[in-house]
Request: fold
Amino acid sequence: MLALVPDRSFDGRFFEGHALFWPLAPAASSFSDERDWPAVEAYQRAFVDPTATPVRFEAAPPPRGRRRPTLDPQRLYDARITRERCVPTRPRSWHDFLNALVWATFPRAKLALHQRQHRALVERIPPGARTLPATRSREHDALALIDEGGVVVLDDGHAREMVLFGHALYEGLVLGRGAMTACAIPAPVTALPSDPHARVAVADEALAAYLASAVLDPRGLDRVRIEPASA
Reply:
């Protein structure tokens, strides 16, 4: 059973607490000796080669006051990722730290997802708008569900394996939140790789291809139950 971890405390060996963390283990092991939260800029260590990465992590600015100037679509979260390859990241946050580890583990899929989220949002913002649209489109809803709670299901016809992608799922495991509902993305393969690194690479490529071309609607996403206690 996974021990409960308070929201603000850091445990560099968290990934040893549950079998479902296996996709993140190589990236997470870079922080296994840390006893307190690393600086956001240090999250770059999660990549195999920190000098050749698709994005960089930058401490997110504090929230603004109530005054709302004209909205600049190019300064929004997904826009900064798409245009500047910069991921605004809150320090001392399990949610954002795990997001960085997912970036290091599934770089193709994460970039494809945020590029599509950027397009889906910007096309709905009228000129001169001061706020974001009050509701999400179905496409944007589906993208958010996959980003937070997606699972790639590798299937070769004989064996199936779930590869967790959504960083909110990993956060739920860290914080001991119990059973969770995930969105399952099927990924048929000719043969399920025996090497875990190869399985992650296949899942990354399959999800990136899916995000680049699929018609997305949350009503069409299959759901799967994640049962931490039994994994």
Remarks:
- The mean pLDDT is 89.
- The first strand starts at residue 56 and ends at 59.
- The chain is about 35% helix and 15% strand.
- The helical segments are 25-28, 77-84, 94-105, 107-122, 138-149, 167-174, 196-213.
